[in-house]
Structures are given as C-alpha cells and as structure tokens.
Specification:
This protein has a six-stranded mixed beta sheet, with helices on both faces. The chain contains six helices and six strands. A hairpin with a 2-residue loop joins β2 and β3. Helices cover 34% and strands 23% of the residues. The structure holds guanosine-5'-triphosphate and magnesium ion (MG). Guanosine-5'-triphosphate binds next to α2.
Length: 184
C-alpha cells in the first residue's frame, strides 16, 4: 500500500485507563464541550463499554474510542483483544494521580493492555496523561506519578517502545490541549 493511500485512512485514537480517571472529561475538552475551566469537577456519568466518535483532528478524520474503565469492561477488552486493539495510531493512557487506591490496579491494567498494543498495534504512539494535577493538589509523600513510572518504564524500555507524557488537569484546559498537540 502506497503512502498516499495510507493517508486516506482514518486515524484511530484510543483513550484508556481506570474508571473515574477523567478520560471522558478530557475528550470533552478536545471536542470543546468543555471550553472554559470549571469551578469544580463537572459531574460525569461512567462510560458504558467503548464510546466511539469521529472528530477532525489536524484536519484529519479521526476515530476516537473512549474505553469505559469499569472492571467488567476492562475484563472484556482484555479477553477479546482482537475486537479492540488493532490499527491504533495514538494510545492515550490516563492515570488519576489523586487516586492512591487504584494506582496498583492501574499499573496492572496498563501492563495488560500494553502487551496487546505491542501485538496488535506495534506502531502506536503511547502517551501518558498524569491527570488531575490540579493547581491546589499537593502530592505530599505519595507521589503517584513517580510510583507509576517506576513500575512501567522498565517494561517500556525493555520493549524499545517510545512514549511521551503530560501532566493534565481540567482546571487548566491548555494542559490538555498541549497533550494532544493543539497548543504549544
Ligand atoms: N479534581 C479533578 N477531577 C477531575 C478532573 N478531570 C475529571 N475529573 C472528575 O473525575 C470524575 C470522572 O471523570 P470521567 O471523565 O467520567 O472519568 P472516566 O475516566 O471517563 O470514567 P469511566 O467512563 O468510568 O471510565 C468526574 O467527577 C470528573 O469531574 C481533573 O482534572 N481534576
Ligand atoms: Mg468515561
């Protein structure tokens, strides 16, 4: 297949992470459903399964797959990877850096999906969003971002997988736009 043809294909952008991490909120910023910083975190409903939508992203048709993170859904994705993990161009993984209790689960979930990305979409760009870095949040002794990276970076490096990462928060919309290349 020639390059010209490749460029006609829609891009597939996937966003995954544990339940309540903030994935759908982040996408609402991208689609400008949210276009100014809220006073308090907006009330959201959990995503049921995978919510698919199409957006224009850098003038290109982009299929966005928002993977609801509740446990039963997570198990379903891992059990049926051929339905979900093919032809991914951008893989966003969202970590709630205020969620101490779900951190280890999030590490394990990442390891699970990472193996499937390697298998089905080895060319995918991996981007970590360390989310809920709110201006008034003080990480104190539990630095969840570092703890997460400590556990996943060795595996990424072992596999020679490149990745980038961003700190994001709904209270600074540019932090989210930057992570998607929409702002410098
Ligand atoms: N403090 C804070 N809360 C946030 C931020 N972003 C989102 N939230 C809140 O986090 C909660 C969950 O947000 P969602 O976007 O529904 O999370 P999700 O990852 O889509 O959850 P599932 O669909 O169940 O997988 C909501 O109450 C949001 O208002 C943020 O930057 N800071
Ligand atoms: Mg959601």
């Amino acid at each position: 297949m020639g390059n010209a043809e490749n460029e006609e294909l829609p891009i597939k952008l996937v966003i995954m992470g544990m339940e309540n991490a903030g994935k759908t909120t982040i996408l609402d910023v991208l689609t400008q459903k949210i276009n100014e910083p809220p006073n308090k975190p907006p009330s959201m409903t959990p995503t049921k399964g995978v919510e698919r939508s199409t957006i224009l992203f850098f003038q290109k048709e982009t299929k966005v797959w928002d993977f609801g993170g509740q446990e039963s859904y997570r198990n379903e994705y891992l059990a049926n990877p051929e339905k979900y993990f093919h032809t991914i161009s951008f893989f966003y993984y969202v970590v709630d850096i205020q969620d101490y209790y779900r951190l280890i689960q999030s590490v394990m979930y990442f390891h699970g999906v990472f193996n499937l990305i390697k298998k089905f979409s080895p060319e995918a760009k991996i981007i970590f969003l360390f989310h809920k870095m709110d201006p008034d949040y003080s990480p104190d002794e539990r630095n969840l971002k570092e703890k997460f990276l400590e556990k996943v970076e060795p595996v990424l490096k072992l596999n020679n997988m490149l990745y980038t990462m961003f700190d994001t928060t709904i209270f600074d919309l540019n932090s989210i736009r930057i992570a998607f290349g929409l702002e410098t």
